[in-house]
Amino acid sequence: MHYAATRVFPGLPSGFPDFSLCGPNATLPTMAPRTPFSRSPVVLAAAVAGTWLSQALASLLKPQGYRVHFASSGRELLERAPAVRPDIVVLDMELPDLDAVRVCRTLRQNRAAWDMPVMMITSLSATAGHRRAALEAGAWDYLSIVLSPEELTLKLDAMARLKLDLERALEHSPVDPASGLYTRRGLERRARELAADALRRRSSLACVALGIEPSPKDAPGAVAYAATVLQASARASDAIGNLTQGAFAVLAPATPPEHALSMARRLSRVIETAGPRPAGVPPLLVHAGYDAAANVHETPIEPLSLIEHAGAALIEARAAGPGERIRAYRA
After folding, report:
1. In sequence order, what are the beta bridge partners of 185?
2. CA-CA distances (angstroms) from residue 35 to 30, 39, 62?
3. pLDDT digits (tens, 9 = 90+) for 262-293
4. Rounded CA gap, 216 and 14, in Å?
5. Any idea which fold 39-170 has?
6. What angle do CA 309, 223, 280 make, to 5 degrees?
7. Domain residue spans of the chain
8. In DSSP terms, which residues pair with 205 in a beta bridge?
9. Does 110 have pLDDT greater than 70?
10. pLDDT class for 327, splitting at 50, 70, 90?
11. DSSP state of 64
């Protein structure tokens, strides 16, 4: 006679709900209260004032601690996004001027942060074709008006928490994922590496700081444009990073002082004359400062001081007024 083997399962971990007891009248444990945001998430929504979407977002999100900004058209959203720097973008599919899928695609093409969620919402039934087009354009989700307010809130809450968690993780990253440039932390680490290599090789090392005008506040797309030009124009051995808002630093190995001056002139000219410029980016004016060591072995340098000296020379160049817009660091 054969007996069916009896499978014995280990006990459930402490605190894990016993779903085997679930039935029609069972009461499941309630979800734990959500922890407060580390900071208020910023939502930028393209929705016509007074529509169901604008009213829903204002009534649902603001009480939860969100900062909600509204744009009445696709063009207005694209113009405001660089300055608002939203954590989440919400697009009404029925925009009065532009196709919402095109707006989403433009956000991604204009170097919108890869980790910035874009949610698209339609007042119509969500078809498979529309959903696929939205996802291919870079949207994180495509929803229909039929979803409940609670579901909309939970989806935005999950996106916001993921965005803020990624933001905290990227604070220690050496590279800005949106621009591909070194962060200040990454720039300092790269300076130490290049200085150690120059010391072994008994070679030179320079840092060129470049500042653009008008300011990023007055021309939001100028920084991304200048970063793209720099990346295309610098040498493969150069390390390019963000120095301050609207200013860049280029660490240049095997570059003595006289060549650092030539590099500052060349990169300034390239940024000022490259084209075509994106819409909304005016002609740029570039100031530069630099510092360099002809032989790091003979004249040891503090890697971080090299960056600071170039930045100080840039400040002097900006304050000098008309005339020569490039300054060497002078102790």
Report:
1. none
2. 15, 11, 16
3. 999 999 999 999 988 888 889 999 999 999 99
4. 54
5. Rossmann fold (3.40.50)
6. 145
7. 39-170, 184-328
8. 253, 293
9. no
10. very high
11. G
